[in-house]
Each structure stands twice: as C-alpha cells, then as structure tokens.
Amino acid sequence: MIVVVPILRRRPVPLLTTVVAALAAAGCSFGPDQPETVVGEFAAALEAGDVQAAAELTTDPAAAATTIGDVFDGLGVDGSGTVRPDVNLAGTSDAGTFDLDVAWTFGEGQDWAYRTSGSAVDLDPQGWRIEWDPALLAPDLTADATLSYTTTTGPAPSVLDRRGQPILEQQVVTLVNLDATADPAAVAPLLATAAPTVTPPSLAADVAAAAGKPVTAVTLREADLAPIEAQLAALPGVSLVRQTRLLTVDRALASPVLSGLGELWQEGQDASAGWAVRLVSGDGTTRRVAGADGPPAPDLQTTFDLDLQTRAEAVLAPLQQPAVIVAIEPSTGAVRAVAQNAAADAEGPLALTGLYPPGSTFKTVTTSAALQAGAATPDMVVPCPGTANIEGRVIPNDDSFDLGSVPLHTAFAFSCNTTMGRLAVGLPATALTDAAAQFGLGVDYVTPGLVTVTGSVPEAQTPAERVESAIGQGRVTASPFGMALVAASIAHGSTPLPMLVEGRPAVADRAPGAAPEEVTAALRTMMRETVTGGTASVLRDIPELVGKTGTAEYGDGTGAHGWFVGSQEDLAFAVFVAGAGSSAPAVDVAGRLVRG
C-alpha cells in the first residue's frame, strides 16, 4: 500500500491516509531488488519531498526530476523537512504493475484524491526502476504540463452607503512602469494629462533612483489611461501592467474611514475564498482538475451618507488650516460622515484619533456635572465677571466681556469662563470625569471599520485642576469624534454605540450609564439659546439647531483652536478647525454644512 498526502506549509494539517498499491500477481517471491522495493523507495522519496531521489528511481531521471520538481513547486510542497508528503507502503503483489492512490490536503476542506497506475521494469544491471510517465503523478499530466494550486475568489462585492450608492468598488488600474531606457521627456507630457505633478525632472529622478530596475511612474484608472494608452505603449522603455484594486467610485472622495472599510472588504473577500488545482499545459492554457468555489461575498452595507460626506468635504476644502467634520446619527450611533480637508489629511486621521483641548465645548460636560451635583439650576442667577481669580488662576472671558449676574442658561449661551470655573471648584474630584463618560467621552469603543479615540478627562484632584478642566483646558483632551459623540449623547439622551457597518455596532470598554433626562433636556435648551441669542447667533436662522462654540488655547497660549458641536433633528456633529484663533471658522463651516 502506498499513501501520498502532501501537507503544505501555508496550512499544515497532520493527516495520514492509507491506500493500497498492488503489484499484479506474477507468482514469484520478492527480495530487496524486486519491484516492491523500488515502488516503496519511490513513494518514500515523494513523502520526503526529495525530488532527486524520486527521479533517480525512474527510467528517465532528468525528465522525472523536472516534472516532479515543477509539480511540487506548483502545489506548494516544501521538501525542507518541515512540511512533507506522508507516504505509507502497506503491501504489494508480485508483478511489475501497480496502482497508486494519492491524496493531497491543502487546508481544511481542501482535499484532492485520485488513483494513477504505473509499471516497474527490471533494467539489468541497475535493477528495478519505475517506468517514467508524468501521468503517474496525476491524471492527464504530460511532459509539457504541470499542476498549480491557487486560492480563488468570486465576484468582488461593493462597499455601499446607507442608500445603496457605491462608495468603493474593485476596479482595473494600470501601472505605468519605466525602465532605464525610457525617455522622461517623452513620457511626462502624456502622464501629466492625468497626473499634473509628473514632470520630466521628477521622472528622471525616479528612474535614476531605481538604479536600473523598473519603476512605477504612476497608476492610472481606466478613464485616465484610455486617451494616452496607445501613445504610451509605443514608447521605448514603457510597460503597462494591469491590476485590480479597491478604489473610490468618486476619485475626489477622501475620508479616514476608507482604509478601515477596505480592510473589512478584504476580510469578506478572504472569507469567500475557494481553491483550485489547475492543470497548466505547455501552451499556457489551464483546466481546473480539483477545487471548490467559496461562498459569494456580500456587499458591505455601511451607515455612511455619501451626499452628506461630499457636502462636508466641500465646505472644508477652502480652509487652509487642518479642519474636520464628524457627523453621527443620535438615535442609532450610525456614523454618517467623517471629512477632512487636505491640510488635515496631511497630518493623519485627525477626525478620529486627533486629541485636542475641547475648550468651551466641554462646558456641556461641566454644566451637566454641576446640575447633577445640585450645585446649580438652569435658572439660578450666577456671576459672569469679565475676569475672576479662582484658586490662584486668573480666568478671563473672551475679550473680558462682563455680563454681571445672569441666569446659568445665559452664562452658558454666552460661554462665560468665569462662571464655569467658579461652578467647578466645589465639585467632587470625579464629577467631570463621570459626567464626560455619560456622554461617551473617555470611553473606548471597538467599532468594525473604525479606529477611534474619544478623549481623556482625568480626575481633577485640586480645585485649581477643576477650574482648568471646567473650561476644556488643562489635562482634558477630546477628539472630534469624541465631541460628536458628546453632541449625539445630549441629543439622544444617552450615548449610542457608534456604528459604521449596518448591524455591527461598537463594543464599549464600559457602560457608564446616561445622565438624567432632565439634565440633557436642560442642556438642549441651553444649546438652543446659544444658537438663537448666544455665541453662535449667526446660525439663528437654522430651525431646531442646537450647539456650543469652543475656543481652546494650546501650546504657549498664543494660539487657539476653534470648535462647534451641535445637532439638528437626528444628526449630531462636531466641527474642528486647528489654529483658527476663535470658534468663528468652525461656526461658519457648521452653518454651510447644515444649510446645504
């Protein structure tokens, strides 16, 4: 009996299959130089992955070595001793013909078994040898053919927005490769029609840096290639190589979430993988001789709103400073848009993981903590002086405006630093930390397709620390994503679990619970007053909009970031403009986003 079970390094599976290789009865006994011996040694050499040893036991060692080596290479057999075929010789008959049952295992559920037949001949004085025939290794194998194992994938799925519009699709692209003989002066003008930054000097520098190896000058979509393909193909030293890639349907679309969606798409493709063993003929034609297709990968349905994303990118584009927008649906946690301008893109995924002092937008948290602690009510009259010395820290209002004594809701609407600093002094050390967590700030979320950080609100052990934290400075940090979640939590009354892919909400590292409904209701009223008559009154024409402005000092205090967080109906959002100097640019962006 002979067993051949190749086990591949890519998915080693220890498996032994016992089969019978029967030498046809001839009525004689066997010694060490009989056909049983050569068949067993041949099988053992295959088991060891020893191409040369197996070949030497045949009538044509050179041809056998070539074919066996090619088959082993094509099927992924490793002859190093780590992963080898398993062969078991269980018995023979007494003639020179035999059947060989072969079983290959390429992975779980990927088994290929078949039977071949062969002959052993006595080549005096060499002794018995396997009569070489490539078909001994696999049915229909010939001297000019080989076998190849590959994984397979079905039709590529699309990544869709909430309305079923495609965001990402697999598309054909072409790599324009140049070797050392290419003339940059001839190539650059053609490529510049699709890639304006390509110039003869830039191409020459790329070719020189490649030190004689081919270099990819640019990758073109089909629409960009078509007008110049014939001219490029005719140029010496230029080769065009086609590939498939997952690309945005709209080339102008850019968002930090796209990379995560691409990873999820690839996971779906990997899960849908099948396998195939192909018989590759000398003329290059192939025929599948074993394998199975995998299950089709479904389209990836996201919560993204492509129209809102496009609008968000458009309103950010004119800004020179890094600027971002994050929009979340309060009722479900669905992420509707994550947009950045070019300056932000150059610094990374600021919208999702950039941490900054939230400034006065954090007064939503401070006010919530004060209301829950019973330190204030919305209508309680509080002082709002232009400046105040609180615990040795001189706190000014913006431009030192002075409202005198006003209801808390008015101090909130006009963003009185002095009021908030004074309220925080008497709060417990954990009050701001706990109130922030009730709005998702400081909570970690694992969201399929998203890598996010919400922020950090450390416990404020001293009154001075609480003063700094109360106005969103000191050690308090937040990401735009984190502040959008704060706005969504206030709008909804509790923090929704973020979600980018339909049906796959985030998992939070903890569940702090919600602030009391009367507190979030009061905050919504104060945030509406901020829009109708406070620091965001330029947006008063927008129905039902609630919000909070924020200016946050950073560095040595000479610069400031601008914020606006708010919601309208079932859409909450945060706008962040780095180094804006005030909240005005963020407020302007919010207005153009919502009015659009």
UniProtKB/TrEMBL annotation:
Residues 1-24 form the signal peptide. The keyword Flavoprotein does not apply. Keywords: Signal. Coiled coil: none annotated. It holds the Pfam family Transpeptidase. Residues 35-144 form the NTF2-like N-terminal transpeptidase domain. The keyword Iron does not apply. Residues 324-581 form the Penicillin-binding protein transpeptidase domain. This is Penicillin-binding transpeptidase domain-containing protein. It comes from Rhodococcus indonesiensis.
